[in-house]
């Protein structure tokens, strides 16, 4: 018996010791890995250099691209940056300005399902798991023989805004000022180049820090002081605006009635066009323009539960352009409107489904035409979804001295019925 115990002891002790050493080694390896990750800092694209004997911008850019993105591969890179590979899908020399630029379109294959990769590397999600798309426009300068440096790195839409064609199209309109809407208890107000919110119909105002520059400034350096319906939220529980900076698009929000304000970076892309924001059951949805081509703005949507980590919502192969309204209802259904076209999305994982809503037959029969052809906003009240349809930019149908809109309602979120005509509540211009 003692012999057996002795043999057993001689076997078990080395196994236990070996197991302990193995576990300790794992902890040491994990600790070392975490230490290496804590030191990781990605190289900035702007200012980065590459050695290349050619003066062809495409050859220079492709060589730099391969070297730069190889730096995101391997175990020393944390998962919120790590990729398996990146490849250029197209390269285009741009010659609209005095100096040439080059646009790179590329695909990145992430090493994990960590969604932070998309934000950290300025990428857009696709329908394929761990596959992302990216775009950038670069301006190169030769600093010495065979050495080239990226003097400027911008998004394609920023380049387009710089072109003479865009500036001619946009023009330089004067900033319009509007009267305060004293009939609304909770709303925004712009005065003296400052964005304010009020929770008591103008009794007191709270300033939104940097709100005028971030929320109202247009790409052509003018300011739009008229914010679209569903583009902001002002309630006692949550107040939010979508702001734009050179670093990207952010949510500017307060959860204590404007006493303190916070900023949450949504993505490093995006630019000022029409913007839309919804907050339902603790989830915030933000929709804004991410690209521009041939005079059209193309949109993307992100959502967040913690107002810190944002996830891109794929709408499939259908590009969403020139939207006139976006609203996410309390049941998690998203509504996207482009003029009179209306699409519904059943949650962030669902696809787009086109809805058909009836015209206001009573009004059409009376006037001989239908003046209401542009969906402007949505709201919910007592479990009913309401849709407000306006007349678009060229509308001139006036009733009782004011432009009018059509109010629709839906009990099931799918079929809508006309309720009545209502007055357009766009604020009057200040004298």
Structural classification: alpha+beta
Enumerate the spans where pLDDT stays under 50 for 5 or more consecutive residues.
Answer: none
- The total domain count is 3
Number of helices: 7
Q: What is the number of strand segments?
A: 26
**Cα distance spanning the termini:** 105 Å
Give the % helix.
Answer: 10-25%
Architecture overview:
By secondary structure, the protein is of the alpha+beta class. 19% of the residues lie in helices and 39% in strands. It has three domains: 49-154, no CATH class; 172-284, no CATH class; 314-431, no CATH class. It has seven helices and 26 strands. Strands 1, 2, 3, 4, 5 and 6 form a six-stranded antiparallel beta sheet that branches. Strands 22, 23, 24, 25 and 26 form a five-stranded antiparallel beta sheet that branches. The protein is globular and about 75 Å long. The model has no long low-confidence stretch (mean pLDDT 88).
Features:
alpha+beta, six-stranded antiparallel sheet, single chain
Short summary:
With 431 residues, this protein is α+β, with helices and mostly antiparallel strands. It is built from 7 helices and 26 strands.
Please outline the helices and strands.
Layout: H1 2-38, E1 49-51, H2 57-70, E2 83-94, E3 101-110, H3 116-120, E4 124-125, E5 131-144, E6 147-154, H4 156-162, H5 164-170, E7 187-191, E8 194-198, E9 206-207, H6 211-216, E10 232-234, E11 239-245, E12 248-254, E13 262-267, E14 271-280, E15 283-293, E16 296-304, E17 311-313, E18 325-328, E19 333-338, E20 341-346, E21 352-355, H7 361-367, E22 374-381, E23 384-390, E24 398-399, E25 402-410, E26 417-423
Antiparallel strand pairs: 1-6, 2-3, 3-5, 4-5, 5-6, 7-8, 8-9, 10-11, 11-12, 12-13, 14-15, 15-16, 16-17, 18-19, 19-20, 20-21, 22-23, 23-25, 24-25, 25-26
């Amino acid at each position: 018996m003692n012999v057996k115990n002795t043999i057993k002891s001689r076997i078990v002790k080395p196994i236990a010791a070996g197991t302990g050493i193995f576990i300790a080694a794992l902890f040491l390896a994990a600790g070392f890995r975490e230490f290496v990750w804590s030191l990781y800092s990605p190289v900035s694209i702007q200012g980065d250099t590459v050695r290349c004997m050619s003066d062809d911008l495409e050859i220079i850019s492709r060589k730099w691209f391969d070297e730069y993105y190889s730096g995101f591969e391997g175990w020393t890179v944390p998962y919120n940056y790590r990729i398996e590979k990146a490849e250029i899908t197209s390269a285009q020399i741009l010659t609209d300005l005095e100096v040439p630029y080059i646009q790179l379109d590329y695909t990145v294959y992430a090493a994990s399902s960590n969604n932070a990769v998309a934000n950290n590397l300025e990428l857009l999600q696709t329908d394929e798991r761990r596959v992302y798309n990216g775009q950038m426009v670069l301006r190169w300068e030769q600093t010495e023989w065979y050495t080239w440096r990226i003097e400027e790195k911008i998004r394609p839409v920023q380049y387009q805004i710089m072109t003479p064609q865009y500036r001619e199209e946009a023009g330089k309109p004067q900033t319009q000022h509007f009267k305060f809407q004293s009939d609304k208890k909770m709303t925004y107000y712009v005065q003296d180049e400052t964005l304010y919110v009020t929770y008591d119909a103008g009794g007191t105002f709270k300033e939104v820090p940097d709100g005028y520059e971030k929320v109202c400034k247009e790409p052509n350096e003018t300011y739009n002081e008229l914010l679209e319906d569903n583009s902001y939220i002002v309630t006692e529980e949550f107040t939010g605006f979508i702001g734009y900076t050179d670093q990207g698009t952010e949510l500017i929000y307060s959860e204590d009635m404007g006493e303190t304000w916070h900023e949450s970076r949504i993505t490093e892309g995006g630019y000022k066009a029409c913007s839309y924001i919804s907050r339902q059951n603790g989830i915030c949805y933000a929709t804004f323009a991410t690209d521009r081509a041939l005079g059209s703005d193309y949109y993307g949507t992100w959502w967040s539960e913690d107002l810190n980590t944002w996830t891109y919502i794929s709408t499939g192969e259908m590009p969403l352009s020139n939207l006139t309204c976006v609203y996410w209802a309390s049941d998690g259904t998203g509504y996207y409107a482009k003029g009179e076209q209306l699409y519904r999305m059943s949650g962030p994982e669902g696809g787009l489904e086109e809805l058909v809503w009836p015209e206001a037959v009573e009004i059409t029969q009376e006037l001989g035409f239908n003046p209401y052809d542009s969906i402007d906003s949505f709201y919910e009240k007592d479990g009913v979804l309401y849709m407000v349809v306006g007349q678009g930019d060229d509308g001139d149908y006036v009733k009782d001295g004011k432009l009018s809109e059509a109010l629709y309602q839906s009990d099931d979120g799918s079929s809508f019925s006309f309720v009545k005509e209502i007055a357009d509540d766009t604020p009057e211009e200040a004298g």
